[in-house]
Design a protein that fits this description.
- The complex is a heterotrimer of chains A (649), B (199) and C (102).
- Chain A folds into three domains: 400 residues, no CATH class; 51 residues; 29 residues.
- In chain A, β4 and β5 form a beta hairpin.
- Chain A has 26 helices and five strands.
- In chain A, α2 runs antiparallel to α3 and α3 packs antiparallel against α20.
- Chain A has a three-stranded mixed β-sheet.
- In chain A, 73% of the residues lie in helices and 4% in strands.
- Chain A is globular, with a radius of gyration of 30 Å.
- The relative contact order of chain A is 0.08.
- With 649 residues, chain A is mainly alpha-helical.
- By secondary structure, chain B is mainly alpha-helical.
- Chain B is extended.
- Chain C is mostly helical.
- Chain C has a domain of 67 residues: Helix Hairpins.
- In chain C, α1 packs antiparallel against α2.
- Chain C is elongated, with a radius of gyration of 17 Å.
- Classes of the chains: A mainly alpha (649), B mainly alpha (199), C mainly alpha (102).
- Chains B and C meet through α1, α2, α3, α4 and α5 of B and α1, α2 and α3 of C.
Chain lengths: 649, 199, 102
């Protein structure tokens, strides 16, 4: 296992760091309060605050060099030996994440001005968006696990608020609730992991954990890593907790772009990267992570092929790409996972915003079967969508190609997977995962090009009059398409070095990799797969337009299986939701009605009343009774005192 | 002397029984007067001559006279007895009271509070001279306070027992009150009958 | 067995006292109850004088004096109350004066 020397410079205090999360928080309040007066102002204020935060991040990044910035707000609490403070830490990993979050976030804020320009609830929307930025920055910048968890929950909350933004429609509200509840299941694992950490070492600070965790047994590391991974499964929509993400498309498109493509769902990846020192000592969990990631990528891609709603295609694509990121993490290439986070943020946000642009232009039509021929009417949207599609498909030299390829290679070469088991003969688990990843890449290329072709090529099949969107929409598209294309080529390697040399270096040595001839062969295979997928899809959806229908007619069962998302939602409904409902009904009838209402609440009142009725009988008003009772009382007192000495007088 | 004590004691108990068991209060009053007289006899036998005299003068002579006066004032109404307890209840109470007697007398003869043998000290001089000497010297303060207490009770009883002397508003005279009370009694009886009918 | 004066009078006092209590509990005529209370007081007086004789002090006599005085005052006031109650309820039976009940 290769490891680069880990340098840990002492952090320098930089109070400017505090502005980074606090500016969006302030913006959230200001936008809501001022924006309620002038709705048009709300969006611009929000953009202002998020852009300001980006500016600060940029300045910090440029001045960072090889050091680390730290800033503390105050000591949150201390219980015995255990203390937690509200402190932030800006190292290379945090820098990269913050740049992505604030940069892409600001662009999406700008885009949202255009997308939500008719909505009457804009102040609330932009307030929530800024609140989300704040929570995400807390998550990324926190220097201890508990503060990260606060941000974790905060983004979950904002996700719920934003998905169910148009809550007057029941399905939207339910989607928000589903997202939150499924997230919560993951959070239970996260909390348990955190509890174990506190139990073992009495601290949640990352730097302290780095040294403390060296002394833990592998058993404990596996357990904690596994529990925290469960949290990541929930937040980053892996199998089996991915069901909330497609439903989350009920929210406005800027929300999908920001939260469910670029930032929130990558929180799980970030968390594992942050705790890389822990995961490298938990090989079983790493293997599980790889397998989960691979399966998720594969399953999501299969579902995406048959989706007709453009946002759903992109949603499943997100789940699939997240699976790739986890594959990287499981292979020990933590910086590769983050690399893919960055490139994914660029092209997925661009894709979502492009889809939103199309949706807006076609009067909120989301079914791709009613699109077509839009390349003439919406040129900017078309070009940016094209670039982003090629990027995600893995077209050579675009950024998606570089990051995805790295991941496939690291999985194949299995250098970082000590628990790599033999599956069949010489074939090891990592080879299987690589194979599935390759197939998934083929499917990714296929369905993304499908969405491109159905939307922009051919002739228009809808009823609206689409035209290009205003500059507030197209400018962010362009600004995101450029790095989608060029980032990988220009900055990919330096990013990997930037991350790998400092945070906790990968278990891989990137330089040695590129010297390996096998690497280049696999690279060619990936290129072939990508181009093949693109070509096949173009063929099906521009020339042989009847072909897809004929294929699905030949394989109706498979088609239905995929269309119904592998029946996962139905499975959960039958296995979990229905029994839970039954249990709730029983509990309601028995515990709530009988026990609490009747026995305890009404019962206690009745008990008091009954006692009162009994006690009331003594107040007869008859003097004789009173005197009799007085005499009896005195009698017994004297008896007890004189004879039995029981009453101490 | 002891014979006198015992005979007087038996008589006292009989007359006390007469007090509590007589059906008419005037009989109870007369029995009580005899009982008080017998208690005075006991005082005299114990050598407390002054107290015996005071007993007859004050208790039997003043208090009981007052009681008899009130019985006279009430006239026939004084015989009201309304709803006796019932013989079982009376028996139970009598038994309990008997138990109480047993409890109270259980300590007699046992233990010595001050270590005195029976009859070791000479009985005191209970003459008027001795008692009044004690009253005006050792017990002067309680004596005067009791005087004030008597004054207070005098004023109080006069106020309580006298009819209001202010001009009677219509409906405040005795006849009006009697009528009102009659109506009240009737209403209550009706309500009782109704509730009995419901329940 | 020698006749013990003190024991005799204590016993007699206890019997009279309890008879008074019995009377208070059993009878419903207010006047009779008052008379039974007087009986109880006299029982106590008897005990006091008997014990004064036993201990050879005059304190018991003086206490009896005061008790009698207070009993007189109390009887006066009590009778005044009875008359007052009679004026309003036209009855001296305790069962009739039972409006203060729950």
């Amino acid at each position: 296992m290769f490891s680069l020397a880990h340098t840990n410079p002492t952090p320098t205090v930089n109070q400017l760091l505090l502005l980074v999360p606090l500016l969006p928080l302030l913006g959230s309040a200001v936008v809501y309060l001022l924006g309620s007066k002038a709705h048009a102002l709300a969006g611009w204020l929000a953009v202002l605050f998020s852009a300001a935060s980006f500016a600060v991040v940029l300045q910090l990044f440029l001045g960072l060099g090889d050091g680390v910035y730290a800033a503390e707000l105050w000591k949150w609490f201390a219980v015995g030996d255990f203390s937690v403070s509200l402190a932030f830490r800006f190292d290379h990993l945090a820098a990269v994440m913050c740049l992505v979050v604030t940069g892409v976030g600001s662009l999406i804020h700008l885009y949202a001005i255009g997308y939500m320009h008719e909505d009457s609830n804009r102040p609330r929307f932009f307030s929530y968006l800024n609140l989300f930025l704040f929570s995400m920055l807390l998550l990324v910048l926190g220097d201890n696990l508990l503060l990260m968890f606060v941000g974790w929950e905060g983004v979950g909350l904002c996700s719920y608020l934003l998905i169910g933004f148009w809550f007057k429609e029941m399905p939207n509200a339910q989607a928000g609730q589903k997202a939150f509840v499924v997230n919560r299941i993951g959070d239970a694992g996260f909390l348990l992991g955190m509890f174990c950490i506190i139990l073992l070492s009495g601290t949640v600070n990352f730097e302290e954990l780095r040294s403390a965790s060296a002394g833990w047994s592998t058993y404990w590391k596996e357990i904690i890593a596994g529990l925290l991974f469960i949290g990541a499964i929930g937040k980053s929509a892996q199998i089996p907790l991915f069901v909330w993400l497609p439903d989350a498309m009920a929210g406005p498109t800027p929300v999908s772009a920001l939260i469910h493509a670029a930032t929130m769902v990558t929180a799980g990846v970030y968390m594992i990267a942050r705790l890389s020192f822990l995961y490298e000592g938990a090989p079983m969990v790493l293997m599980i992570i790889t397998v989960v990631g691979t399966v998720t990528a594969f399953v999501a891609a299969t579902i995406a092929i048959v989706q007709n709603d453009i946002k759903k295609v992109l949603a499943y694509s997100t789940v699939s790409q997240l699976g790739y990121m986890f594959m990287a993490l499981g292979a020990g290439a933590f910086s590769n996972g983050i690399y893919h986070v960055v490139t994914h943020a660029f092209f997925k946000a661009c894709l979502f915003m492009g889809a939103g642009s199309v949706i807006m232009a076609c009067h909120h039509e989301q079914d791709m079967r009613h699109y077509g021929g839009l390349w003439k009417k919406m040129p900017f949207t078309f070009v940016t969508y094209l670039v982003a599609t090629l990027a995600i498909a893995g077209f050579p030299f675009l950024s998606g190609f570089f990051s995805k390829d790295q991941i496939l290679w690291t999985v194949f070469s299995n250098q970082g997977m000590p628990a790599n088991i033999h599956v069949w003969g010489a074939v090891r688990l990592s080879h299987v995962c690589w194979g599935l990843g390759l197939v998934t890449a083929l499917m990714t290329a296929f369905y993304m090009t499908r969405s491109l072709a159905m939307t922009f090529f051919g002739s228009y099949r809808g009823h609206a009059h689409p035209h290009e969107s205003p500059w507030v929409v197209t400018l962010p598209l362009v600004l995101l398409a450029i790095p989608s294309a060029a980032f990988g080529y220009l900055y990919g390697e330096s990013l990997l070095h930037y991350l790998g040399a400092w945070t906790r270096p990968d278990m891989l040595d990137h330089d040695a990799l590129h010297a390996n001839p096998l690497y280049h062969s696999l690279e060619l295979i990936s290129i072939g797969v990508a181009l093949g997928g693109i070509a096949l899809s173009l063929l099906f959806y521009t020339q042989l337009t009847g072909m897809p229908a004929r294929i699905s007619a030949r394989l109706p069962n498979i088609h239905r299986f995929l269309e119904h998302k592998w029946w996962v939602d139905e499975l959960y409904d039958a296995l979990i939701i229905r029994p839970l409902r039954k249990v709730s009904d029983v509990l309601f009838a028995v515990v709530d009605r009988l026990l609490i209402d009747d026995a305890l609440v009404n019962g206690s009142a009745l008990f008091v009343e009954a006692n009162g009725e009994v006690a009331r009988k003594m107040q007869t008003g008859q003097i004789r009774l009173y005197s009799t009772l007085m005499f009896l009382g005195v009698f017994f007192m004297i008896v007890f005192y004189l004879l039995l000495r029981l009453v101490p007088l | 002397m002891f014979v006198a004590m015992v005979i007087a004691g038996i008589l006292t108990v009989i007359c006390a029984a007469g007090v509590i068991a007589s059906s008419r209060p005037i009989h109870s009053a007369l029995f009580l007067i005899v009982t008080l007289f017998l208690v005075a006899v006991h005082f005299a036998l114990l050598g407390a001559h002054f107290v015996a005299a005071i007993q007859i003068l004050v208790y039997a002579g003043a208090i009981m006279v007052l009681v008899v006066f009130v019985i006279m004032l009430l006239g026939a109404e004084a015989n009201a007895e309304g709803g006796k307890l019932g013989s079982w209840g009376q028996l139970a109470l009598a038994i309990v009271t008997g138990g109480f007697v047993a409890v109270l007398t259980s300590g007699i003869g046992k233990g010595s509070a001050t270590g005195l043998a029976k009859g070791a000290l000479a009985p005191p001089d209970g003459s008027a001279e001795a008692v009044s000497l004690a009253l005006f010297t050792n017990f002067a303060l309680p004596f005067n306070v009791t005087g004030m207490l008597l004054l207070a009770s005098l004023i109080g009883s006069v106020l309580l027992a006298s009819e209001a002397r202010r001009a009677l508003a219509p409906g405040r005279g005795l006849k009006a009150m009697q009528d009102r009370y009659q109506r009240m009694r009737e209403e209550e009886l009706e309500k009782e009958e109704q509730s009995v009918g419901d329940g | 067995m020698e006749f013990d004066i003190t024991s005799f009078y204590l016993t007699l006092s206890a019997i009279l006292f309890c008879m008074g209590i019995l009377g208070v509990m059993i009878r419903r005529n207010t006047l009779v109850i008052l008379m039974c209370i007087e009986l109880m007081l006299n029982a106590v007086n008897l005990a006091l004088v008997g014990l004064a004789q036993h201990f050879g002090t005059l304190d018991g006599h003086v206490y009896v004096f005061f008790i009698m005085t207070v009993a007189a005052a109390e009887a006066a006031v009590g009778l005044a109350i009875i008359i007052s109650v009679f004026r309003n309820y036209f009855s001296v039976a305790t069962g009739d004066v039972a409006t203060l009940r729950g």
